[in-house]
Amino acid sequence: MDTNENILKLQGKVNIPDPLTIGENYKITIQGSITGDSRNDNFDGTVDTTFKFEPVLVEILTPQRVSIKAKDKRKLSQKLRGRLFLLWKDSKEQMDFEDYYEVQMTKIIGKIDEIIDFI
């Protein structure tokens, strides 16, 4: 089937340190992850694909050009897993991500003393 529309659905929330004002326009920069997708049949030979996007890092620029940054609520282990996923994706590694993750975490744990000394 052909794709009729690709839709990005923004979901989730972030905590910000300052309040915002109703009626103001803000520029928002978002970094996040696609955490799911779904396809809906249009019954005309096409489908619409919806991608679920959840924010990780958000920066809001106020009309007064003040930057408000949201707090990254992810645990450090989630950040490490995300970084390893990017390395796996860029490496063109043949093993699946779960196996790659286990191998790399085993290496990191085995070398933790050297890593601590290095940093």
Structure commentary:
Helix content is 31%, strand content 36%. Strands 1, 2, 3 and 4 form a four-stranded mixed sheet that branches. A hairpin with a 5-residue loop joins strand 3 and strand 4 (67-69). The radius of gyration is 20 Å and the shape is flat. Helix 1 packs across helix 2 (97-110). By secondary structure, it is of the alpha+beta class. The protein has three helices and four strands, in the order ββββααα. The mean pLDDT is 92. It folds into two domains: 1-71, no CATH class; 74-119, no CATH class. The longest helix has 16 residues, at 76-91.
Q: Tally the beta strands.
A: 4
Largest sheet: 4 strands, mixed
Percentage of residues in helical conformation: 25-40%
Spans of at least 5 consecutive residues whose pLDDT stays below 50 are none
Fold blueprint:
Blueprint: E1 2-10, E2 27-41, E3 46-61, E4 67-69, H1 76-91, H2 97-110, H3 112-118
Helix pairs in contact: 1-2
